[in-house]
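pasting for the record
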Amino acid sequence: MSNQDTEFYTGLIRAYFDSANDAIFVLCNELKFLMCNRLMEEWIGFSEDTLTCHNQRRPITELLGDTVSVEKFCAAIEQVLDGHPQRIECFIHPHGAQPRWLEISMTRVDVEAGDMVIAVARDTTRQREQLAKIRYQSTHDALTGLPNRVMLQNLLGSFATTIGPLAALAVDIPRFRDVNEALGYRMADEILEAVARRIEHTIEGDEGATTGHLTGDRFAIIASGEAAGNIDRIAAAIHEELSRPMQHNGLELTLGSSIGIAQFPSQVEHCTNLLQAAETALHHAKQNAAAGIENFYPELYGEGSERLSLVNDLRDAVDHGRIHVHLQPIIPLQENDGIRLEALARWERDGVDVPPDEFIALAELSGHILSVTQLVMEQAVAQSAQLIRDGFVSGIAINLSPHCLMDRSFAERVGVLIGKCRVPASSLTFEITEGVAMSERMHQYTVRELRALGVHLSIDDFGTGHSSMCKLRHLPVAELKIDKSFVRDMLTDEGNATIVEASINLAHSLNLKVVAEGIEDDATLERLAQMGCDYAQGFAISQPLPLQELLEWLKPGAAHWLQRAINQ
């Protein structure tokens, strides 16, 4: 090869070297720079000539941002020089340049002049910032900025080897729901923030006390050390502070509080159970304690101990995916719109099925409802996705807790799940109770985002609440679901039959579809079809089934029920 050719190919390689999207550099075995490309020059604020000047070669360790990164880099280099390629992430902070996190892949190259290390670096600063943001959001309440239940539970877990006392308070604001309904969610959010600041201010002198926001109108305090020893005083101080009138936008509000206290090791055997124990005590404080403050005493509350055990088992079931989904068919009565499904949560504890109403209520009370809903939603959409894509069913309905509407990241998770399972957003229906539908929660951010995704909303248990015709007309819902208490006895109770027929006519006047649930016999099914009801659901059609049994039902059962319903 001629000198001219050598120069050409050297220039070509250099051009590629400098135009690479990653930073590339070469080190000698003393960790000093031999070469680097333009992106590396930009990142560290030095030219290649400065870095590689024979008498002033700089070791890369001078550019690393902390001792941990230096130690990690040096340990990796030892492995590389021993012939083992390495990939590490470390922090660089050169003088006068922007600090960055880099993912660096390194390998050894043997040349006559000695061993060299070729490194390719990628900037991971943005990814780390996004990850930090996600971690923060997963451990902090979006409204108040306080630690959420996850973080408080992690904090309790970090005390597992602690010998000293620990304590927890659960604080409920009993009049907050009235404020929410009367003033709207925006002002209610502002008041919650004000309550959070008042609680923080009350305990700011108690070292070892951490305030958290569990959900809605419920706060918590985790106390260690001296603060744990003063927990009764702290509870009394918070109770007194929240009993004082507060001024907000020209209004004077007195919210009050109910407080549950749990202490380790005197009242609770395991410190990780403190929060649940405090909430159990809170439950009794709201019902029984004239003073509004109650301590947790397992020997006094046998049912409290059982509830605590049930909460622990529920949390374990959620963590290990032992909440399962059964699917109940919903058949069309007027047109061949296709069969739909409703996902219903099931939990078997020690070989015995726990009634869904019981463990769902427990999940609401203990703060696990978001995790349960996420688990049910993931299973339901995953199990029905192929059936929806193949046209065997037209959609899946999932019950939604009001807590989900208050979770600002819920709609985003729904969008991710829809994309992952490759189902149309329109095939997903969330059922909310009539009481929630009529409340200000329906106007929150989450509802708007869900509708923007294209999912449908349905009012569940219609007829059991107090609907306003004005509100009903403007709600972003596509369907009413008539409560089974009216449907079950409609053939023998003329009053119930009138309610059912009136509900169907009302829904149709608002261009809403109607589902009747709780159908237990063919005669009721036939009467509903005559009334013009759009969909039917109940044991007369099918009980909720695990996926494999549903597939068997769909083979002959689907055609049978569809034809039968249409003929009626």
